[in-house]
Write a structure and sequence with these properties.
This protein has 308 residues and is α/β, with parallel strands linked by helices. The protein has a domain of 131 residues: 3-Layer(aba) Sandwich (Udp-n-acetylmuramoylalanyl-d-glutamate--2,6- Diaminopimelate Ligase, Chain: A, domain 1). Helices cover 43% and strands 15% of the residues. Strands 5-6-8-9-10-7 form a six-stranded mixed beta sheet, sandwiched between helices. Helix 4 links the parallel strand 3 and strand 4. Helix 1 packs parallel to helix 7 and helix 6 packs across helix 10.
């Protein structure tokens, strides 16, 4: 009798896991099929143009607690008074993204992360930086305005980046406040493969036994920092911690020692851009109905790395 019950339980667990994988893949596939460049019908705005400042104001109207007394969300290049010819959302305003924006006749880039290689976008961070000078010249020559949208998008309810990621991987129905993400028991390997497919990531870094079954997940996109990542692991005691970027000598070493002490916690590192890009993709979807005929394109800045 014991063996029969055990077999039935295993069958039920297998069915739940298969259902979970199929459901999340379908949800993610549906999201990736959204044609963002297509102009959707505006509910109220039929203006033929906005200034860049008007678009910024339209966005900030939806953010609680604005304006912030301290924020990095400022214009990094160009003028707020220009009429918008097109909008590009992205993680990093890379040279390639700028060139693509030029081809699309889009003069307004909304980037989540710095344009000039440091948190405050201080162009004098390194004196006589030739790469910074060339990038400034490229932006000025093509009259492109870059606005960073970081602090405010994270302050949106729900967090704009986190919500975009959760939707992209199809886990929004598994999110439980103050508990994390609770999914049907699934192997670490299957979760990693699911993330690779839905987030379109070529390679992931993993600490843990790939056959380990995981149910409770903490997801921290971007570069939350070692203290935040380790604190979340201690507070929520997840089976799996998923992060964007980490300090290898902090969080990775904590996970390694935790496992050596018998803790079954695993770690998946997605990469910084890959872990937050869906949030900027969702921004394009979120913003398009608010501005009518102005076309918005999301251009993924992608990872700068290749694997050999």
């Amino acid at each position: 009798m014991k063996n029969i019950v055990s077999t039935e339980v295993n069958k039920q667990q297998l069915l739940e896991r298969r259902k979970f994988i199929i459901t999340t893949v379908k949800a993610a596939t549906a999201l990736t099929c959204i044609n963002l460049p297509t102009v959707v019908k505006a509910s109220a705005n039929f203006n033929k143009y906005f200034t860049i400042q008007e678009v910024i104001n339209l966005i900030l109207k939806e953010i609680p607690g604005v304006p912030f007394t301290e924020t990095v969300d400022t214009i990094k290049s160009g003028s707020a008074n220009n009429k918008v010819t097109g909008i590009v959302t992205t993680m990093f305003a890379t040279v390639k993204v700028i060139e693509e924006a030029i081809k699309l006749n889009a003069n307004f880039i909304i980037a989540h992360e710095p344009t000039f290689y440091n948190h405050l976008d201080d162009v004098k961070w390194v004196e006589n930086n030739k790469v910074v000078a060339k990038k400034q010249e490229l932006l000025a020559k093509n009259n492109i305005t870059v606005w960073r949208f970081h602090d405010y998008w994270h302050a949106y309810k729900p967090d704009g980046i986190f919500n975009g990621v959760i939707k992209k991987v199809g886990w929004q129905n598994y999110l439980q406040p103050d508990k994390g993400i609770i999914i049907p028991a699934t192997s670490l390997k299957d979760i990693a493969l699911h993330l690779k497919v839905t987030l379109e990531i070529a390679q992931l870094r993993v600490i843990g036994d790939l056959s380990t079954s995981c149910k409770k997940i903490v997801l921290l996109p971007g570069a939350a920092g070692g203290e935040t990542q380790v604190s979340a692991a201690e507070k929520f005691t997840p089976d799996l911690l998923i992060v964007g970027e980490l300090q290898e000598w902090e969080t990775a070493e904590y996970i390694r020692d935790a496992r050596l002490f018998g803790n079954k916690i695993s770690l998946i590192v997605l990469g910084h851009s890959e872990s937050e890009e869906p949030g900027m993709e969702w921004l394009a979807e979120w913003l398009q109905p608010k501005i009518g005929v102005i076309k918005i394109n999301h251009i993924a800045s992608q990872s700068p790395f290749v694997w050999i």
